[in-house]
Design goal:
alpha/beta; two-stranded antiparallel sheet
Amino acid sequence: MQFVVMVKPIGSVCNMRCKYCYYLEKGQFSTHEKQKVMSYGLLEKIIKETIAASDGPVVSFVWHGGEPTLAGLDFYKRAVEFELKYLPKGWQVWNNLQTNGLALDEKWCAFLAKAKFDVGLSVDGGKETHDSNRKDVSGNDTYEKIAKNVALLRKYSINYDLLCTVNSVTAKDPVGVYNSLKALGSGWIQFIPILNRVNDTYTEDSVKPAEYGTFLNAVFDEWVAHDLGKLDVQLFAETAKQLAGGQSSLCTLSPTCGAALIAEEDGGIYSCDHFVDNEHRLGYLKDSTLKALVESDKQISFGLSKRDFICDDCKKCPYLNLCNGGCLKDRVDGKNVLCEAYKAFYDHSVPILKHIMELSSKGLSPEKIMEEIR
């Protein structure tokens, strides 16, 4: 079974206090009285068993949080040592550090470059939209510091992509947000809708479905007109792949899920990043093997529930083969809360993407395709 382990070596501890964060509270599920850095013994066990359970020849590790850099540089140096120790001959390991970028410096970037880590950097567009939600623990703005650290990533030729939330603030300025991200020089942008539900009500920072659809379409038009062949937006690239007959590699768009597990700092293994709670704890590595937890009936059932518990409206939808009902965390009574947004996006983008693919099959360059689309 191909799967990814999202390792959270510091649990939910973070050096920022983003208004819409859903993860800070997850420390309550830790068996540690106070969250600590994952032990080296547990780190070695996770790496050894992930490699052993993998089909290969590429084994993936995503280092996440909270803020994973708070585990310290020595933690990741040791992780690389363990990877080299257990990796079979001819296999490769892919490490991705998902970070807010606040703690990056020359030492970090020198290590990441040497160890060939990719970086996923969270940034919410330009200074105004970013700083409205993403403050440090003292309440200070963070954009300028993070933008400087993006320059460090470029200096060390580290492959980085940008993760931007679509919340009640960023949703109001789609083109401005997109162009600000583009200016940071990454070739890959991922937009993540914020939907925080409390007692059957969505928080003020959550994006409304209509806003999200409008946001996606505005960004899509800007991308089609100016940036084909220059950078990719995850949802657009995945949709094009599906239209070409492939299957999305994005779990939210796949028919089933369950192949991206969470390893917390205490060795607790959970079904998904959005389901770190007692109900979705598969077990602890001290009591089991990772392979047994990945292949457990509980995890298989969780993954299949994405396909099986879906409303009748979704089953009749012409876009079901594209969105597959979206993420489980965004469903209410089997229907995705963002259904309206996805329909608006597919109505708008699918005919254009098909036309782009047709023009590309005729040998037209991205520049010529953009010219015709415009």
